[in-house]
Amino acid sequence: MADPMTAARPSLRDLIAAPHPDHAPLPPAAPSEPGVHELRGVPYAENEGGRPLELDLWLPGARRTGPLPLVLFVHGGAWRRGRRDDLGMSTRHWSPRPFARIAAAGLAVACADYRLSGEAVFPAPLDDLRAALRWLTLRSAELGIDTGRTIVWGESAGGHLASLLALTHTEPRPAGAVIWYGPSDLTTARGRFTPEDASTPEALMLGTAPAAAPERARAASPLSHVHAGAPPFLLVHGEQDTMVDCSHSRSLASALKRAGRRPSCGRCRAPTTAGTGCPTTR
How many CB atoms lie within 10 A of CB 260? Predict the structure, then answer.
């Protein structure tokens, strides 16, 4: 048995360091909109030599009958910029804010940081979202959430990462995905994007032109990960999108359909085909 008088003592650096996110106390929930509590800036992961990664949580304040389903939101910004709680300029003036509205309806919402392309290259941002979901699962009893009922939701670059998380993560496996105009294929020229260009946001996220690293580009393409066990996807994309070509969502919808996941209309929920509109009104 080790002598307690001679056992190694923690260094001063260890003693003054912040507690690890896995067991650090949760911050107190602050009242937000009526019936909603917020937990802001909760650390969920530490990366050696980098900033701590944080997430924000919106939780219903009313009495609950059991663990809450979770919406995990992934922000956009071309993998290079953006804030974890920003859904886009069209909703910045909303009151109540979008995530507070979802929480008021009875769901938990988490918005997580991920490393941007100026900090680290792929698969770092996807690894960070996996870490966020792992942390949320680890602390689920304290938070009153059920990560087995997680819907991943992302817009633009966040839609790309949310698609990858929905198609590849297994512990826990996301229950569904809501993808707003997310890139699905980094291997083929689409719209303004060409895989040979080393200056595109896609290339900066990969660390090189996609054509120069075809295996990495394929690994970063949701289209390459479609499988029959994929969760349900709701794909939303403007046909005249000039930043992310609509063919990304059309191709992903077609691949999901071929794999056995039939797309449905976001308006009426009836089975449909990408690009054909609502089957009850056309």
Answer: 11
Structure tokens at 35: 């019936």
Tokens of 124: 């770092």
Q: Tell me the one-letter amino acid at 84.
A: R
Q: What is the pTM of this model?
A: 0.86
CA distance 11 to 13: 5
Count CB neighbours of 271 within 10 A.
Answer: 11
Contact 58, 102 (CB under 8 A): yes
Q: Inter-axis angle of helices 124-138 and 157-168, to 10 degrees?
A: 60
CB-facing half-sphere around the CA of 281: CA atoms within 13 A? 8
Contact 57, 38 (CB under 8 A): yes
238: which residues sit within 8 A by CB, 6+ positions away? 181, 246
> How many degrees, rounded to 5, is the angle at CA 226 between CA 220 and CA 230?
120
CB contact at 8 A, 215 and 224: no
Instruction: Work out the number of other CB atoms within 10 angstroms of the CB of residue 136.
Output: 23
Beta-bridge partners for 37: 31, 59
pLDDT at 216: 98
pLDDT of residue 137 exceeding 90, the answer is yes
Half-sphere exposure of 112 (CA within 13 A, CB side): 30
